[in-house]
Write a structure and sequence with these properties.
Distance between the termini of chain B: 59 Å
Helix content of chain A: 25-40%
Strand content of chain B: 25-35%
Number of helices of chain A: 16
CATH superfamily of the largest domain in chain B: Probable tRNA modification gtpase trme, domain 1
Strand order of the largest sheet of chain A: 8-7-6-16-17-18-15-19
Number of helices of chain B: 8
Number of domains of chain B: 3
CATH architecture of the largest domain in chain B: 2-Layer Sandwich
Number of strands of chain A: 20
Shape of chain A: globular
CATH topology of the largest domain in chain B: Gyrase A, domain 2
CATH topology of one domain in chain A: FAD/NAD(P)-binding domain
Largest sheet of chain A: 8 strands, mixed
Helix content of chain B: 10-25%
Largest interface: A-B, 19 and 20 residues
Oligomer: heterodimer
CATH class of one domain in chain A: Alpha Beta
Order of helices and strands of chain B: HEEHEEHEEEHEEHEEEHEHHEEEEEE
CATH class of the largest domain in chain B: Alpha Beta
């Protein structure tokens, strides 16, 4: 039988590629089926205007896990590594954050930032340890689960009494209150607020935003890098690793359904009617899509379906791509600063106000923006002398009141451009083409329900033992032979490869045990 | 000031006027928002109407849901543990439904009214669960408790009463069958079902026709000893039948807080209702595991020596009551028709195998003073009361 594989991975997102590469390395005959014509899922580079290319969704690397790089011998080429974050000031008195140092604020703030980061990094290190292992099952009597759970408790206790109290106090808290207590610089508070809410449906006053900040630090203390050739190059490298290990990757092969027979996964069926068989089917799709569309609610039980149905997974971040005929002028920035990460979040209240309309299904008239000029050090992305601006613009709610019509998109694009123009007055003249990807577009183009980067909000109630939901938090779905390996599984989104790696390890260790 | 407050008083069923006219003791309780009679004149007489003549019980407050749509069969098959494909139109199935942990949420009856159209009846309300179970299915769930008036007509002369009322062809109706008749230009549904393990029927009609139906029924039953009854008499008949009641033999799983306080169908003696041949139903994975590893609890029907009902008693493995109890009684009664001291209880496995003996600690009061006795009890596996007339088709005239 030609169509029988040891494992079939549905979706060649970066996690799917990591998972398939690791399984193939372990000697498995792996098939990866990808709906789009490029591998990478939301980690792709593509042309959006004649001669201009950009990372279509994810555009910065925070936390590609060293374990993944080591095991798959990856060495992504970076056009900018360890980028400084420059938070723009209308009068040109920008604040620069780099590692634990901050410039452009008072000495007290600079010293306070160092202390703040020291503590946050300590907590983030604690989290990081758990990013790279499957979360323990609660109520389990399995020794491994109990050990991991015990270790987690021990690690928290080992922080010391004061730090443990601080960790437990902060983990569910909102970032605004913590920042307000510690800092006076609005720009500094704005920048950290933005880092805490990027890619979520949360404002800085929403509970849980300290955890999202910690998650951002957990990968590599918040170090940010821009890959050479855009994010697609990382995916290509992963695909190469998978193929070299023997995996078969087929693009333009959308999976119609995961075949369930007698309560177990037995393969997949593609939209063109082909059937591929395997007793191990691994879904890189988000949990909702996996259960509701690919598997079908009737094949799983009601309580589980209800939890999946109620997963919060509505995206709120849009991606804006501008083709520019030259770099814009921003007062107070030197030319080399265009290699850095530039953010517009002048103060923490600005960020919260940007979030306010999103609660009621409206887009922000004054959005927060994270932008980079990936073409600045990368000729492959734009014609010589011309540039690409890649920006994450918030908030653009998935379920926009009235829908994402042409007018609604134009309004939001204009709001973003006008916001940038406050700092770069010549930006409008420089635009030769633009592209806006709302969460609705991200859903459509990358097949992510709700267009949420993380395949589901990254909050305490959808984290660790309960990510995406209890009953599926250890990559194994409540159907024999069916696994999750995407951002919807622990630990979550970001181009980290952790979920894909953990899933592969879970599958291999189960096989060993059986 | 105009009063627009939400109606908070107890609802009256469409039969209330008729029940109230017969009521002499004024003992009522609340049943899912409705007034329901404990008893109307004398519990004992009402009970003997069930076993010796015809008893009429107002079961309108019973929760009823209509399930329709192209996926209704698939929906029900995922919802309940038994195979609903075997229940053809015109048939009724007793069923239990479980949560994902394989614990019973409730039991009830499912009426296959017409091809692809069902009615689910249960003691408790389950709209939220039924709606959650409908995610991904093309079905419509309608709560229709208020839209259907229902009477249980139970007892040896019940067939004669209904026959006398003019329901032609009723003799063909087998247990767990249903049929539609014309009643004054309206559809009257009759099912051969009940909560008494006796010959009996249930009548279903639109509320507008409720009083007319009652009157016709009582006119036809006059010579057959027809009597209206309350829940106390029915409860005694229920225990004799060995049927389960929610909040007695089990707690609805979604109402329990502590672990181990809910029960699986296997722990309630309902193995026969669990069809593992179905590839998926709510609770299947957990129940398959339980079947493999063994259950914690076992439901027992007990025939107890003596005549003191074992209300709320602990059950022990031996007469000395050493090593602690092995379970407890959930329902108990002196059965007048069986002349037996009967009870239903729950014990830890491996105790309680059919035919084995256990000991029940009974406390009873005599002239203010309390006495304690250890009574020997035999575990029986058949219902206490199961007369041949219950299954006879055609039913004999009495």
């Amino acid at each position: 039988m030609d169509n029988r594989y040891d494992a079939i991975v549905v979706g060649a997102g970066h996690n799917g590629l990591v998972c398939s590469a690791l399984l193939a390395k372990a000697g498995k005959n792996v098939l990866v089926l990808e709906a789009n014509d490029q591998v990478g899922g939301a980690a792709v580079t593509r042309e959006f205007a004649d001669g201009y290319s950009v990372s279509a969704c994810a555009h910065l690397l925070y936390q590609l896990q060293p374990e993944v790089c080591k095991e798959l011998k990856l060495a992504p080429r970076l056009s900018s590594g360890d980028m400084t974050t420059i938070t723009l000031d209308e009068n040109g008195k920008h604040v620069r954050l780099s590692g634990d140092a901050v410039e452009g604020v008072s000495d007290e703030d600079a010293a306070g930032y160092k202390r703040f980061r020291k503590r946050m990094n300590r907590f983030a290190d604690l989290l990081r340890k758990y990013l790279n292992k499957p979360p323990p099952r609660l109520g389990s009597r399995d020794l491994k689960d109990l050990m991991t759970l015990g270790q987690l408790g021990f690690d928290i206790r080992r922080l010391g009494k004061e730090e443990m109290q601080e960790f437990l106090r902060l983990i569910g808290m909102n970032i605004h209150d913590e920042l307000d207590e510690r800092f006076e610089s609005s720009l500094l508070k704005g920048a950290i607020s933005l880092d805490s809410v990027l890619g979520t449906h949360l404002g800085p006053r929403s509970p849980n935003t300290i955890m999202t900040y910690l998650y951002r630090l957990a990968g590599g203390h918040g170090r940010v890098a821009s890959p050479q050739g855009g994010m697609g190059s990382v995916s290509e490298e992963l695909a190469h690793a998978a193929r070299s290990a023997g995996a078969t990757i087929r693009t333009k092969m959308p999976v119609q359904r995961i075949v369930i027979e007698n309560g177990r996964a037995t393969g997949v069926e593609t939209e063109d009617g082909q059937r591929f068989s395997s007793f191990t089917v691994i879904s890189n799709a988000d949990p909702k899509r996996t259960v509701m569309e690919l598997v079908g609610a009737r094949h799983v039980e009601t309580g589980f379906v209800r939890r999946i149905h109620h997963l919060r997974s509505k995206g709120n971040a849009a991606k804006l791509h501008l083709a520019l005929d030259g770099l814009p002028t921003i007062a107070g920035l030197s030319k080399k600063d265009f290699a850095e990460r530039i953010v517009i979040a002048p103060d923490e209240h600005y960020v919260e106000r940007a979030f306010n309309p999103a609660k009621y299904g409206e887009s922000s008239p004054n959005p927060v923006i994270e932008m980079t000029f990936p073409s600045f050090r990368d000729d492959s992305l734009a014609p010589t002398g011309k540039h690409v601006l890649s920006a994450v613009v918030q908030y653009a709610p998935y379920a926009l009141k009235g829908g994402w019509s042409k007018d609604a998109r134009e309004t939001f694009t204009q709001a973003a451009v006008k916001t940038i123009a406050k700092y770069a007055p010549d930006i409008e003249q420089r635009i030769t083409a633009s592209e806006l990807l709302t969460p609705a577009d991200i859903e459509h183009e990358f097949h992510i329900t709700g267009g949420h980067w993380h395949h589901g909000e990254l909050t305490l109630d959808q984290f660790l033992f309960v990510r995406p939901v209890s009953g599926a938090a250890q990559y194994q779905m409540p159907l024999d032979g069916l696994y999750l390996c995407g951002a919807g599984a622990h630990p979550g989104g970001g181009v980290s490869g952790a979920a894909g790696r953990n899933a592969a390890r879970t599958i291999l260790s189960r096989e060993k045990a059986a | 000031m105009k009063s627009q407050a939400v109606h908070q008083g107890r609802l009256k069923t469409p039969f209330y006027s008729r029940l109230a006219a017969l009521d002499t003791v004024n003992e009522w309780h609340e049943w899912k928002g409705y007034s329901s009679a404990d008893s109307l004149y004398c519990e004992d007489m009402e009970y003997f109407a069930i076993r010796n003549a015809t008893a009429v019980f107002d079961l309108t407050p019973m929760t009823k849901y209509r399930i329709t749509g192209p996926d209704s069969l698939d929906y029900l098959n995922r919802l309940v543990t038994r195979d609903m494909a075997k229940i053809r139109p015109g048939r009724v199935a007793y069923a239990v439904w479980c949560d994902d942990q394989g614990k019973v949420i409730d039991d009830g009856t499912i009426f296959h009214l017409r091809e692809g159209e069902y009615r689910l009846c249960s003691q408790e309300r389950h709209f939220a669960w039924l709606q959650a179970a409908a995610i991904g299915f093309d079905v419509t769930i309608t709560h229709e408790t208020e839209d259907v008036a229902a009477l249980a007509v139970q007892g040896p002369t019940s067939f004669s009463v209904l026959n006398n009322m003019g329901l032609q062809g009723l003799e063909e109706l087998k247990p767990f069958g249903l049929a539609h008749f014309d009643f004054e230009g309206t559809e009257l549904m009759v099912s051969r079902t009940g909560f008494t393990a006796d010959l009996g029927y249930e009548l279903w009609i639109v509320p507008d026709k409720a009083e007319a139906l009652w009157d016709a029924l009582f006119a036809a039953g006059q010579l057959f000893g027809i009597r209206a009854i309350g829940t106390h008499a029915l409860e005694l008949a229920r225990i004799e039948a060995g049927f389960l009641a929610a909040y007695m033999e089990f707690l609805p799983a979604d109402e329990t807080v502590r672990t181990g306080r809910s029960r699986s169908p296997l722990e309630l003696g309902l193995d026969w209702l669990v069809d593992f041949k179905k590839p998926n139903f709510n609770g299947r994975r957990a129940l398959a595991e339980e079947k493999r590893d063994g259950s914690t609890w076992r439901l027992v029907k007990l025939d107890i020596e003596g005549n003191k009902p074992a209300h709320n008693s602990y059950i022990f493995a031996n007469a000395k009551a050493s090593k602690g109890h092995i379970g407890f009684i959930t329902s108990a009664a002196w059965s007048p028709v069986c002349k037996q001291n009967i009870a239903i209880g729950t014990v830890r496995t491996p105790h309680g195998k059919p035919g084995s003996s256990v000991w029940v600690e009974i406390y009873y009061q005599r002239e203010m003073h309390w006495n304690r006795m250890m009574a020997k009890a035999t575990v029986v596996d058949k219902p206490f009361w199961f007369p041949p007339r219950r299954g006879a088709t055609p039913p004999g005239p009495y």
